[in-house]
Amino acid sequence: QVQLVESGGGLVQAGGSLRLSCAASGRALNTYTMAWFRQAPGQEREFVAAISWSDGGTTYADSVKGRATISRNNGKNTVYLQMTSLNPEDTAVYYCAARRLSLPSTRGDEYGYWGQGTQVTVSS
């Protein structure tokens, strides 16, 4: 069992930056992949970024590549999503997810653990 709790969402102006956090508990994450997804109102859930806990390898969606950095803190069992140059299209509920396998995936149905989500709103 893995429990995930997101935090750090809020209101930010276009062009600004935000750092989201996802605290994981329940078991060791050495074989896991951690990821961020987002869902805007009326839209499908969208992959944002993923990181392999074991080696730190990362994967990014084209929509955020160059603007987002996913990272981890091993001691805190926490994964972060740092986003810069935010625009209103980034407005969504951001979810943290965990996958048992260390191989990253962009498919939400391949992740078995999810947090409650944190709202990010970007104003123009």
Count of discrete alpha- or pi-helical segments spanning 4 or more residues: 0
User: How does the major sheet shape up?
Assistant: 7 strands, mixed
Task: Give the overall shape.
Answer: globular
Beta-strand content: over 45%
Unreliable residue stretches: none
Describe the structure.
With 124 residues, the chain is mainly β. 0% of the residues lie in helices and 50% in strands. It contains no helices and eleven strands. The chain has strands at residues 3-7, 10-13, 18-25, 33-39, 46-52, 58-60, 68-73, 78-83, 92-99, 113-114, 118-123. The chain starts with a strand and ends with a strand.
Write a brief structural summary.
Helix content is 0%, strand content 50%. The protein has 124 residues and is mainly β.
List the helices and strands and how they pair.
Layout: E1 3-7, E2 10-13, E3 18-25, E4 33-39, E5 46-52, E6 58-60, E7 68-73, E8 78-83, E9 92-99, E10 113-114, E11 118-123
Parallel strand pairs: 2-11
Antiparallel strand pairs: 1-3, 3-8, 4-5, 4-9, 5-6, 7-8, 9-10, 9-11
